[in-house]
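hey team, just a heads up i'm posting the complex here instead of the shared drive bc the drive is being weird again. everything in one block, sequence lines first with there labels, then the predicted structure for the whole assembly after. its two chains so it's a bit long, scroll down
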Amino acid sequence: EPEVTQTPSHQVTQMGQEVILRCVPISNHLYFYWYRQILGQKVEFLVSFYNNEISEKSEIFDDQFSVERPDGSNFTLKIRSTKLEDSAMYFCASSPLAGGTYEQYFGPGTRLTVT
Amino acid sequence: AQKITQTQPGMFVQEKEAVTLDCTYDTSDPSYGLFWYKQPSSGEMIFLIYQGSYDQQNATEGRYSLNFQKARKSANLVISASQLGDSAMYFCAMREGLSGGSNYKLTFGKGTLLTVNP
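-- predicted structure starts here --
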């Protein structure tokens, strides 16, 4: 069964450093998302991406964040200058253009720890 | 106002019994979808079940069923014949605006931690 993959599974970085989180969505999906989950809290929407551009972003997704689909398979989230409060699990998700449920398939997540 | 409310921070159930996890939602959009995801301690998000706002029947997927009461804006998850492996965090989520647009973001509740006792 096709699945969303994310790398790395765990990233430790120092405050102020740049990080890039990588995702490979399911190959025939056209909508891509990033969510984050601070430890013990609910999952929060960051950004959605369709047709090579951002379609919506949340208040969390400020100028420190950017997303890119550099080729036909990868979807990346970059944090330019990490802060302690960026420590969280980051989930990538994708969904197909059409389909009854428009279900979003989540990747296993990248746990980001900022020290 | 919270769009998704899960009032049960934690629930306990005996193995083989049924359990209901509550979820209420708030939206003015006539087109929306409701989802339940399971998050085990390993952290991944596993899709369980979906209910569309226009679906006439309650959704079912194996041991999972969704008790959809549109007028009350509730979408409770029922797990029948609980198993030890069902112990996990369960999140209710909503997607608004199925009628068009390229958004489809999910809004999640705070979750319910289910513990299945042997």
